[in-house]
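Protein modeling request. Please complete all fields; requests missing the sequence field cannot be processed.
Requester role: graduate student
Desired output: 3D structure, token encoding
Chains: 1
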Amino acid sequence: MPTPDRYETLDIPGDAGIRAFGSTLKELFVNAATGTYSLMTDVRPMAERETALVSVEGHSIEGLLVAWLNELVFRFDAYGFAGKSISIVSLSPGDRDAAEAEAFSLSATVAGETFDPRRHEGRLLIKAATYHNLKVENRDGVWTAEIIFDI
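Delivered output (151 residues):
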């Protein structure tokens, strides 16, 4: 289950949420994705049979995070694809420039396989990451994000 230094689940009545952590924005986005997948299924027994290149854009760091997680949720819902390992290829802007940027983009490689209910554990059916109480902040060199999902 969740590792507190990467992400943790939030107890929210009627919804689901995670709090993700990272020493960099890239690490934060990877850990937020890992936390999101953990709400939907257990990816530990999954193989890395397929690879997907995922690219998203946003008008804020929060918007980029929502777009990123919603793209992963879409791929899970539409194609059954669940990522076991995630590697951020590019994230713009970087950690220092995030507060002043006007455009944000992320490109990542996600390796995993198609969810099979006979072999994989089904957990929550996530509809979308939301902007409700969304937070992305850097405190003392640690990036933290809180995301609530509509289920």
